[in-house]
Hints:
There is one protein chain. The protein is of the alpha/beta class and about 300 residues long. It has a single domain (about 10-295), classed as Alpha/Beta hydrolase fold, catalytic domain (Rossmann fold), CATH 3.40.50. It has helices at about 50-55, 60-65, 95-110, 125-140, 160-165, 175-180, 210-220, 285-295, and strands at about 10, 25, 40, 70-75, 120-125, 145-150, 195-200, 230-235, 235-240, 250-255, 260-265, 280. A hairpin with a 2-residue loop joins strand 8 (about 230-235) and strand 9. Helix 6 (about 175-180) crosses helix 7. The relative contact order is 0.14. The model has no long low-confidence stretch (mean pLDDT about 95). It comes from Aquisalinus flavus. Pfam families: Esterase_PHB. Keywords: Hydrolase, Signal. InterPro entries: AB_hydrolase_fold, Esterase_phb, Plant_Biomass_Hydrol_Est.
Amino acid sequence: MHSERGTRLTTLNSFGTDPGSLSADIYIPETVQKDGPLVVVLHGSDQSAMSYDYGSGWSTLADERGFALLFPGQRLRNNAIGSFNWFKSGDNHRGSGEALSIRHMIKQVVKDHAVDPSRVFITGLSAGGAMTSVMLATYPEVFAGGAIIAGLPYRTDSLLQALVRMKGYGSASDQTLDEFVRGASKFSGPWPTISVWHGDTDRTVDISNAGAIIRQWQKILKVGDAPTRREEVDGFPRKVWCDADGREVIEEYIIRNMGHGTPINAEGKEGLGKEGKYMLEVGISSTRHIADFWGLT
């Protein structure tokens, strides 16, 4: 556990063009493996890269497991509450805006730190979760897996539409959700795996969005509507969808009695992160379980 917030990350100053005008921080642990993985972490509104790392414990886990971290960051001049602009068409399409900035950051870190390009993963909370959906849809060839926490499916085209969908109304049809991803790039697979986390009392992003994310990816990942199995992990329900080869390609955790935020477990020797605003101590570490799902632990 690091005691001082923000002392671990260093600035990535140069990473190709930056059409979205974002900031970039990295954490490369001393234990980093050559040809190791990279995890991209997207903060939520009213958060920074540093505060999200402090709360979620990603850099502590990176020390433990030897993977590199990239933290794209929003600037207040782009969005008054520091939210990624996942709902703006200039920022949520391949080849432009914030999505392209994040792509260029990833390319730079892969090159600078001998990352295995087939082991790049992405996760985010809230607006960062919605931006994770953007990146998985627009640059699917870049990612082996993604984890969306209290986020929304791809894609939303205006602030008004975003606000309505956050409240659980006006979602696109399942067919349209599928078409959004297929139309976002020319990619034909293999597609990234998808992990979805949501609190069942979230009043900021309605829980219906978790189901919409899963439905967006089911046909693409060639799984049925019903989960392959249901189990309990750390006292919470987990649903898993496996492909024809038996590989887990979608998982969903619904956290009972949890509002809007990232589920953490800071207690005990396996503990990660620190409780705070939108960092909710519920007795399960999404950070650790997401890393497990990706095969990083």
